[in-house]
Amino acid sequence: MKIVTKIIIISVITAVIFIGFLRISLTGKTQDKKQLIKIGIAAWVTNKEYTRNIQGFKDGLAKKGFIEGENVMFFIETAEIDDTKQRKIIQSFIDRDVDLIYSLTTPGTLIAKEMVADKPIVFSIVTYPVEAGVINALENSGNNLVGTRNYVSVEQHYSQFEKLCPTVKKIAIIHRKGEPNSKIQTREFSQLLAPKSIEVVEIAAVDIKDLRLQLKQVIDDVDAIIATCDTLVQGGGEEIIIDFSLLYKKPSYTCNKDGVLKGALIGNIADFYTIGELSGNKAALILQGANPSSLLTESPAEGYLLVNTKTAKELRIKFPQYVLDQAQEIVSK
Question: What CATH number did the domain enclosing 177 receive?
């Protein structure tokens, strides 16, 4: 009887120990899940450069110890330039109780700002965040937002293009109708070009179809084309501009890297990966306890000059050697 009792006691003790270890294991897993940081990424449009920006954002976080799959999970959604869809995406992030939202572009970020006041929002690819009403000031946002700008001054934008095309007298400047960023940029270009006696033909298109129609109406009457840094250009407009540029032998300038890669003559751009990484650094600081309004909204330290020598050859334009020497990237195929 005593032997049986001892066996029973040992069995009970063993079972208790096993259950204890099981509880610890399960509790640990639950705690790990609770500690997983959730970040919602609203990409606005499908675009190779936007994908590079998001990768830069993830890499910026990873360098600060916030690594996907270890202590961070991402929810990536794309509105495809649709306000209604963007609202649904932001609402889904709210419903998931994400810890932080990463938003690309001015229109996408303005929607996020309108809908979310109690969570930090980090933005990128917003050229004029103060003028567009995203934040109050670059040094102190005055709200729950902070981020990076894809900003290069119009003086930088135009300086190299002017050296290549000094006889230009009439330029078509293209932007999406009503989009704050590119509307401001168009105005700045107009102010820069007026003292040079260069006439600006503004093309404010509502969509790709409208852009094609308006370009066809003015292309014979202009000497060159400038593509602004906006969602119409980045969402398919660039290809239309390049087609017209090559067909009608009109040089085109862009502030989008993908544009030069696809056939625009030249561009002085803010590298999207770089500003994504800067935004990732800011997100990491916020997750470590910083207030978004205490952080600086900034641009990359310098522009990134790209030239397309294949397009130059088609347009019978020769790049001076000093321009080629200054270029960070030369596209020849």
Answer: 3.40.50.2300
Q: Are 245 and 252 in contact (CB under 8 A)?
A: yes
Q: CA nearest 268: which of 301, 241, 303, 234?
A: 303
- Locate tokens 């997750």: which residue? 287
Of 214, 221, 219, 218, nearest to 244 by C-alpha is 219
Which tens digits make up the pLDDT trace of 4-27? 455 444 554 454 444 444 444 444
Residue 232: inside a domain: yes
Q: Which of 317, 329, 320 is nearest to 223 (CA)?
A: 317
> Which of these, 288, 218, 212, 277, lies nearest to 243 by C-alpha position?
212
* Alpha carbon separation from 152 to 26, 156, 176, 262, 277 (Å, rounded): 52, 7, 19, 21, 17
Name beta bridge partners: 40: 75, 101
- Which two three-digit tokens encode residue 50? 């936007």
* Through-space distance between the first and last CA atoms of the chain, rounded to whole angstroms: 91
> 244, 278, 238, 295: which is closest to 261 by C-alpha?
238
How crowded is residue 86: how many other Cβ atoms within 10 Å of its Cβ?
26
pLDDT of residue 12: 44
Q: Distance of CA 171 to CAs 82, 227, 319, Å?
A: 30, 10, 20
Q: What is the DSSP string of 84-111?
A: HHHHHHHHHHHHTT-SEEEEESHHHHHH
Range of the domain at 172: 154-269+303-331
Is 30 within the bounds of a domain?
no
DSSP strands (E only) in 148-239: 170-176, 199-205, 224-227
Report the predicted TM-score, pTM, of the whole model to 2 decimal places.
0.80
Chain CA centroid to CA 290, Å: 22
Q: Strand, coil or helix: what is 117?
A: coil
The CA R_g of the chain, rounded to the nearest whole Å, is 26
